[in-house]
C-alpha cells in the first residue's frame, strides 16, 4: 500500500446543494426560487449543451402557475429535508470529516425582501448543522448555490439591480449570527463564473427580457454586484465569527492548446485567463486590466458605487475552492473539429481522453495540473469541493450496485490530489460531488447518478426514496479510514 502523505487534518467528505437534494419546495414557509423553474429535459442531447439550459420569461410564468413536481424535479429532490438524519448517519459511516451543503436563501427570506427571517427555515439548518457536529462532520456551507428567490428575479431583475446586494448581505448577517457556533467554513457563490453559461440560474437574469446588444453589459453589471456582495459577506463573517474562513468557488475549466502551434497556445492561455478572472477578483481584490480593457473596447459600462473597488480590495477570501470535472481543448480551427461538453461548457475533443456517456471528458492528470497552476497563482489553500462521475447505475438481482467505473474515476482523481500534495500544494480537503444521488443540475434527471449512496427514485419521480450503499461506498470508506493511502 502506497503512502500518499495526506495531512492528518485533511477534510474528506462529499458535496450537495439544497436545490438538488432538499425537496420540500413549498413547506415551512419556503419561498419559490430559481431552481423551482428548472424543468426536466429527458430528450436533451448530451452533445447539445445549449439544449440543457436556458429559462425564458414564458418558462417562469408557466412554472409559477403549477405545483407540479415531476416536470420540475428540483422541487422534490431526494427529500433530504425529511431524510437528513438518515443520510448523515450514512455519511458518518463512511467517515466523512466534512459535508458541503448550501442554505436555500428562500427558506430564510422567502422572497428575499422580508424584514424578519423565517424561523422554521433557520431552525431546520440549525438542526442540520447540529446533527452534523454530533457525528463529527464539519459543515462547509455555500451561501448562494443556484437558489436565489424568484421574487428578486421578477421584481429586481436579479443581481442586475444593486438593492439585491444589500438584501444578500442582510441574509448573510442573519445566518452568520445564528450559526456562529456551528459553522466555520463558508463559501460565497457557487461557480460564480457560470454567469454567462446560465445567467438565470446564477444571477437571476432572464436574458429575453432585454435587448440582445445589452445582455453582456447586464450580466457583467450583475457580476459586479456579486463581487461586492462576496466582499461584504467576507467582511461580516470575519467580524461576526472571527475564526471562520470564507472561500470563493469557481469552475476550473482547465484548457489545453490543441497542439504546439503558437496560435493555439495563445488561445488556450487566454481561455485560462478568462476562467481565472472570477477568482482573481476575489483573491487579489481588483479587476484585471484585460477585463477593463475589454469593457472599454466593447463599450460596456459598469456602474460602480463610490467605495465599491475599495470594498472588493479590502475583503478578499481566505481560500480558493473549485469544481473540477474535465479539461477542455482550444483550437483556432474549432469550427471544423468534433466538440465535447460538460458542466455546460464546450471545447474541442481531446483524442487522448475517454469520455462519459454524457459526453464529459475524463482527465485526472488535469486535476493535478490545475492544482499546481492555481496554487502557483494564488498561494492560498485550495479546496476541491466538486468532482465526480455521472453515470447510469444498474441494480443487481440482490439489490447491490457494482459501480467499478465510479471507483476507478475517484481512485485516479484521488491519486492526482496526492501527487499534487507531494508537489507541495496546500490542499484543505476533497468533497466529491453528489456523494448521494441527487437531481442533476442541467437536465434534472435522476438517472444521471453521482453518489456513493443510491436513492430509489427514477426520472419520473417513481420510487421509495430508500437509500442503499453502492460498492463505491465501501471503497470511499476505506480511503478515508486510511487517510488516502489505500486506493485499491
UniProtKB/TrEMBL annotation:
SUPFAM superfamilies according to UniProt: (Trans)glycosidases (SSF51445)
A single GO molecular function term of this UniProt record: beta-glucosidase activity
Example of a GO biological process term: carbohydrate catabolic process
Active site location: 386
Pfam family, one: Glyco_hydro_1
One GO CC term, this protein: cytosol
Keywords, sorted A to Z: Glycosidase, Hydrolase
Family recorded in the similarity comment: Belongs to the glycosyl hydrolase 1 family.
PANTHER family according to UniProt: 6-PHOSPHO-BETA-GLUCOSIDASE ASCB-RELATED, GLYCOSYL HYDROLASE
Protein name: 6-phospho-beta-glucosidase
UniProt organism field: Propionispira arboris
UniProt lineage: Bacteria, Bacillati, Bacillota, Negativicutes, Selenomonadales
